[in-house]
Specification:
alpha/beta, 8 strands, 44% helix, globular
């Protein structure tokens, strides 16, 4: 099976997925089996502890879905457990500078290219390799992604894009609009200008780019502008939306 890292760098594939905030291996397994390219298990904004995290990562086995984890911050204490539980990728929030981006990359790589500690006692089973084969066969396959969601990141995007080892960036318009003083106003000129600047710089740097693609129109617009990482939605919001629709059908 082609690794997600290779799909990002060696193909032109559109890669879509969902964020999982429901702490449930059952929900994760159902979503993974539905065919997305990746799922992000969200530890930044969801009540997901280590036991659920491991179970949710394990629940993607047997599918082509890549398990990523959005950590609380770019810190070894957050990143190491997620990788050792079998995550194939880490999504880093609130990156502001090139130095912070370089630290994120280092946390996902083994020496001499980074400073990830060796302890794949659980991770090797998720990937079907023997313990001592994990580093040579899987050690270089970890996907490092950054969320661009701060004004500082927009201001520093040229330098951030020069950091070697970043696999993709996602423009997080919810957080970015809030920081720019226009929360939820996705048509605000200040936000549109910031997003356009980020898109131009990231794409010119040859880094895979993504953003929310919650509707057909939004997804098609993103694709036209060069996006390849498509964020389809959140599990809990999809569940809530379907429940509301079902009630409307029953009462119409």
């Amino acid at each position: 099976m082609t690794s997600m890292k290779d799909r990002i760098h060696k193909t032109k594939d559109l890669l879509g997925g969902y964020l999982c905030v429901i702490p449930s291996a059952v929900v994760t397994q159902a979503l993974a089996a539905a065919g997305p390219d990746w799922l992000v298990i969200d530890q930044e904004h969801a009540p997901i502890g280590m036991e659920n995290l491991h179970a949710m990562i394990a629940a993607t086995a047997g599918t082509a879905c890549s398990p990523w984890v959005r950590v609380v911050k770019g810190d070894e204490a957050c990143v190491k457990p997620a990788l050792d539980a079998g995550a194939e990728g880490i999504m880093f929030p609130l990156v502001r500078t090139a130095a912070e981006a370089a630290e994120c990359v280092a946390l996902t790589r083994y020496p001499p290219h980074g400073r990830r500690g060796w302890a794949p006692f659980i991770a090797h089973s998720r990937w079907g390799v023997e313990l001592h084969d994990y580093l040579p066969k899987r050690g270089s396959e970890t996907v490092c992604g950054l969320l661009i969601e701060t004004k500082a990141a927009v201001d520093n995007i040229e330098d951030i894009c020069k950091v070697e080892g970043i696999d993709y960036m996602i423009v997080a318009t919810f957080d970015l609009s809030t920081e720019l003083g226009v929360p939820g106003k996705f048509d605000a000129p200040i936000l549109l200008d910031a997003v356009k600047h980020v898109e131009q710089v990231v794409l010119n740097a040859g880094i895979a780019l993504g953003a929310s693609a919650l509707t057909r129109e939004q997804a098609q617009g993103n694709i036209r502008r060069g996006h390849r990482i498509l964020v389809y939605g959140f599990d809990v919001l999809m569940l809530k939306q379907y429940a509301r629709q079902a009630a409307e059908w029953a009462n119409s």
